[in-house]
Fold this protein.
Amino acid sequence: FQNLNQNPRTLLPKFYGLYCVQAGGKNIRIVVMNNLLPRSVRMHLKYDLKGSTYKRRASQKERDKVFPTFKDLDFMQDLPDGLYLDPDMYNALCKTLQRDCLVLQSFKIMDYSLLVAIHNLDQAQRERAAGTAAGDGDGPGRPAAQRALYSTAMESIQGEAPRGGTFQTEDQMGGIPARNSRGERLLLYIGIIDVLQSYRFVKKLEHSWKALVHDGDTVSVHRPSFYAERFQRFMCHTVFRKIPRECSPT
């Protein structure tokens, strides 16, 4: 709570409520948090990234979904050159990640992920053109306009919106402009997720066992300080890259 008040530039999730429902003699706890992905923007790719490579590939069951969530090894295969950002945007993002990782490390939290969803503007343009040619146009299936709370990806790294405020947005919904290696224009929607796993006794045992069988530095379960450092390094060197200013996606 203190971090969110003092630091509006954060990719950590915003928790709006915690509820406990009693059913069948059991307590079911429900956490309500902000949604990172606007429904009015179609995401062409989505990744759950930890900076770990051990078994970090989407299963066949996941791949069969309409909107699958891929993982680290999939990202490195699909986008080996990473995602290119304007230098100022890149610096702001990496500073935000560094600060958030320090907060999580101070609470001995690990095993979190960066959710990265990609809207390809050029691909969307081609899809609209194909839809218009087929006579589809903007049919009834088009999502309704959405009012965004203060939690868009752009604001999470720039912290420019008034705290607690809302604002009307266009379809881009605060996405971070980027490009891929083919020069296509992208909008990124990102946030740190799964932040409720602490490095306690059971997780320490899990890491020790996996480290004996596999390379300990590649498994997802790791002590918070090492996890934070590996997470930042992967995001700021493998996932996100600086684009030369003359080729800025903005």
